[in-house]
Amino acid sequence: MDLKEFYKYHGTGNDFILFDNRDGQLSSGDPEWIRGLCHRRFGIGADGIIFLEEAQQPDTDFSMAYFNADGQTGSLCGNGGRCVVAFAKMLGLIRDRAIFTAFDGIHEASIDPDGAVLLKMAPVNTIEKGPGFYVLDTGSPHYVCFMEEVDHLDVYAMGRAIRYNDRFRQEGVNVNFATADPGNLRLRTYERGVEAETWACGTGAVATAVSLAAHLALADQDHRIPVHTKGGILEISFRKTSGEQFLDISLKGMATFVYQGKVAG
């Protein structure tokens, strides 16, 4: 039996199986194999799988291929991006800074001495405002809804109803429920591709913090908003400009190694 080494990481409870696939020996597109590994009863258990692969662009350190737990190619995964940077450091590819290619292009990242990873994100130039919701893309598509409290919501039922409504059924959307309080922003997310609530969502935290700035008409200046998820705190920083453009966006939080092992490839 051909065994492949894997590494388990999590970013504030958003967990991933990572493979060093720089030699290209692993097939990074077998949905059945990916679903099996991510299964929480019959596999390792994870929200997704990440393949660290050879750099595809000049002046970058590596590339990241991400697959959701359903076996399908994922869009940008913010917490996964932070975890793959920590993984690259463990492999000796980088020291405390990285430039890598992901689904939505090139990203820069840095690692603090305490292990927290800061990931720079693409600007947000467009936010759709609907009756009681916001829709925007932060590397992945997100729907954001603000409410008084989120601790007692049936996130699975409510999120699934939105994710599979007539508008979003085909392409899917991640659904975020949050409190509209920049001092105590609490977030719960139903993720497409996982088709369940996850303990954290990096691109969802960014989408929610940016939507909050629009929702509350925060001043056109630099902002830093802590987002409280089930798995811990993510810190979102950005600069809001006139016309509701959001620049210099970053996502910061811990990226934690859990264990390593071998699995049939």
What does it look like?
The protein is of the alpha+beta class. It folds into 2 domains: 3-121 and 255-264, Diaminopimelate Epimerase, Chain A, domain 1; 128-251, Diaminopimelate Epimerase, Chain A, domain 1 (Roll). Helices cover 17% and strands 43% of the residues. It contains 4 helices and 17 strands. The chain has helices spanning 31-38, 78-91, 155-163, 202-215, and strands at residues 3-11, 14-20, 48-53, 62-68, 97-102, 105-111, 116-120, 128-130, 133-137, 141-147, 174-179, 185-191, 196-198, 222-229, 232-241, 245-254, 256-264. The protein has a 17-stranded mixed β-sheet that branches. The longest helix has 14 residues, at 78-91. The model has no long low-confidence stretch (mean pLDDT 96).
Q: How many β-strand runs? A: 17
Query: Could you please say which CATH topology of the largest domain applies here?
Result: Diaminopimelate Epimerase, Chain A, domain 1
What does the largest sheet look like? Answer: 17 strands, mixed
Give Rg in angstroms: 18 Å
Our count of domains comes out at 2
Head-to-tail CA distance between termini: 8 Å
- Share of residues in helices: 10-25%
Low-confidence stretches: none
User: Which word captures the global form?
Assistant: globular
Number of helices: 4
Tell me the name of the CATH homologous superfamily of the largest domain.
Diaminopimelate Epimerase, Chain A, domain 1
Supply the CATH class of the largest domain. Answer: Alpha Beta
CATH architecture of the largest domain: Roll
